Amino acid sequence: MTVLANLVSVRRMGELQKVCVDDAAGALQEFWSQRVVARANGNLLKVAKGIRSTSWHAHDDQDEVFFVTSGELVVQLRSGDVTLRAGEMLVVPRGVEHCPRADREVHLLLVGPEITSNEAGGKPAWSHDGGDPPADAG
Questions:
Q1: Quick count: other Cβ atoms within 10 Å of Cβ 50?
Q2: Rounded Cα gap, residues 5 and 10, in angstroms
Q3: Does the global pTM surpass 0.90?
Q4: Which range marks the domain in which residue 93 is found?
Q5: Are 105 and 49 in contact (CB under 8 A)?
Q6: Are 113 and 80 in contact (CB under 8 A)?
């Protein structure tokens, strides 16, 4: 297996791709960044990893699907928190303000339409360029 294939855990099979979602998410350099690993039926399947929290934000033009592949994610909502563990998912309806939070590193699969909104998705400034969360961040 090549270094590139190891990095993103993708094995090509003709026109098909096998993706190890958890490995692909773990290989990302930045927290709360997304990388498209596949496209299906007009949707993008994106991996992400997170720690600490994003900023509160909403997507006015689309629902957001969070599927946890490892770790634990708390999706903070104004109406109350929803805790997701590996193998669990949540659909946040369009327009609903939310703030994903993880006390330890979490790996995610996100699903959304070809045209995405709010590309930053509440991404905290410290996470740009592979930064680490500040010790006092909550």
A1: 26
A2: 5
A3: no
A4: 3-115
A5: yes
A6: no
Residue 78 inside a domain? The answer is yes
Q: Are strands 72-77 and 10-13 parallel, antiparallel or unpaired?
A: unpaired
Q: Which of 138, 62, 75, 66 is nearest to 107 (CA)?
A: 66
d(CA 23, CA 109): 11
Is-contact 70 108, C-beta < 8 A?
no
Residue 135 domain-assigned? no
Q: What single letter denotes the amino acid at residue 83?
A: T
In a domain, residue 39? The reply is yes
Q: How far is CA 100 from the centre of its chain?
A: 10
What would the pLDDT profile of 115-133 be if each residue is shown by its tens digit?
A: 555 554 676 676 666 667 7
Spatial separation of the C-alpha atoms in residues 105 and 77, rounded to whole Å = 20
Structural domain count of the chain: 1
* Cβ(87)–Cβ(15) below 8 Å: no
Asked whether residue 97 is assigned to any structural domain, the reply reads yes
- Please write the tens of the pLDDT for every residue from 63-77: 999 999 999 999 999
- CATH number of the structural domain spanning residue 39: 2.60.120.10
**Dist. CA 124–CA 138, nearest whole Å:** 12
